[in-house]
Every structure is written in structure tokens, then in C-alpha cells.
Amino acid sequence: MLKKRTKKRNLLTTNLEITELAYTLHITANRLRDTISAVNIPSAYRVQISRKVHWLIGQAQSLGYELQPASPDAFLTKKSTEIIGEQLGLFD
To answer: Could you tell me if 23 and 90 are in contact, meaning their C-beta atoms sit under 8 angstroms apart?
Structure first.
């Protein structure tokens, strides 16, 4: 039987580090969203930055698959990421 090929994972990366990265991505996306709504910039730039915001949030959400065990719904929102971070001792 052929083995399914999987991507190599750095086993030294802990759930705490993954959670910290997801939290940072959510914070960055929120700051960008707040900034583009407060600053007067051309709509073309606003659209580009909005796409980056959605990309950042998507990256944060996809990090749930990297947890041990995988939890795809772990980092859907900043609030859920904060809850997981508190459980893992991220804010201590």
C-alpha cells in the first residue's frame, strides 16, 4: 500500500507558539481594519488593504490545522484565539 504524502511539520513548534502567531495575525488584521476606516485613503488602496486583512484572518484560521491535535475551528475569531491562549498560558 502506498503511503500518503504529507507535508513535513516542525515538531518543535508548540501549540503555544502557534496560538501566539494566530493571535498576532488577528491583532494585525484588526489594526489594519481600524486604520483604513479612520484614515482618508483612495479606494484602490483601501481595497488592497482589505484583501490583506482577509488574507491575514484566513492565515490565522488555517493555523488551527497545525495544532496537536488538529482543531480547524480553533482560531476563527480573535476572541476564540484569546480563550485558547489563556488556556495555554500565553498571557501569563
So the answer is: yes
| Tens digit of each residue's pLDDT (9 = 90 or more) over 5-28 | 566 665 667 999 999 999 999 999
Query: ω into residue 72 within 30 of 0, thus cis?
Result: no
Position of cell 491562549? Answer: 85
Q: Which long-range contacts (CB under 8 A, 24 or more apart) does 6-13 make?
A: 9/66, 13/66
Contacts of residue 21, Cβ cutoff 8 Å, sequence gap at least 6: 60, 63
Counted residue by residue, the chain has a size of 92
Can you give the pTM of this predicted structure? Answer: 0.83
**36 contacts 85 by C-beta, under 8 angstroms:** no
Q: Which residues of the chain have pLDDT under 70?
A: 1-12
